[in-house]
């Protein structure tokens, strides 16, 4: 039993970003062409503790936990939220055999809520351009659901949202008047 993990090493991604900015300036004046390295694939056994899997992948990726946390998403852009799991939970509960998962950097706010995510892939690769819009769509739908749970409408106002039943309209109107 195994699954695939697609990734790019943390320091290589930063170097490619630096060189791509530099070559874009230089390429205006010359015919320099830059080749982008390919993403790597890691074969892992998900039949282990999630903490062991995260630590192993972080070591392979050379991930720096100071600025962000590490998570995984499937090819549809759905986040696995492995950081919400207990360290002794098995990875096989969220990762399925022979499926491909992508390493994701998660930036969290002070409350621990994910504020932004980015796939840890080379920015100009096909995988990156495929999964980034899916991740953004997943995050925006998730934020919308969280706002709906809190009772905040799309304009940022607190209170009841639009999908209220007709029999409750009278009580809501009376609550507002009081």
TrEMBL record:
Keywords: Receptor
PANTHER family, alphabetized: AB2-183 (PTHR33887:SF4), PB1 DOMAIN-CONTAINING PROTEIN (PTHR33887)
Pfam families, alphabetized: Il2rg
InterPro entries xref list: CXorf65-like
Protein name: Interleukin 2 receptor, gamma chain
């Amino acid at each position: 039993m195994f699954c695939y993990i697609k990734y790019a090493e943390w320091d290589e991604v930063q170097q490619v970003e630096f060189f791509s900015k530099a070559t874009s300036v230089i390429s205006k004046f010359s015919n320099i062409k830059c080749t982008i390295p390919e993403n790597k694939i890691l074969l892992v056994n998900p039949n282990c503790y999630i903490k062991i899997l995260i630590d192993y992948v972080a070591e392979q990726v050379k991930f720096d936990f100071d600025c962000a946390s590490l998570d995984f998403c499937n090819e549809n852009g759905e986040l696995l939220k492995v950081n919400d799991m207990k360290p002794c939970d098995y990875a096989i509960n969220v990762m399925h055999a022979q499926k491909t998962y992508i390493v994701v950097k998660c930036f969290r706010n002070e409350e621990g809520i994910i504020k932004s995510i980015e796939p840890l892939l080379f920015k100009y690769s096909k995988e990156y351009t495929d999964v980034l819009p899916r991740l953004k769509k997943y995050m925006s739908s998730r934020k919308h659901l969280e706002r709906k749970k809190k009772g905040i409408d799309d304009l940022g106002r607190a209170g009841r949202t639009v999908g209220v039943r007709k029999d409750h309209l009278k009580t809501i109107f009376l609550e507002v008047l009081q």
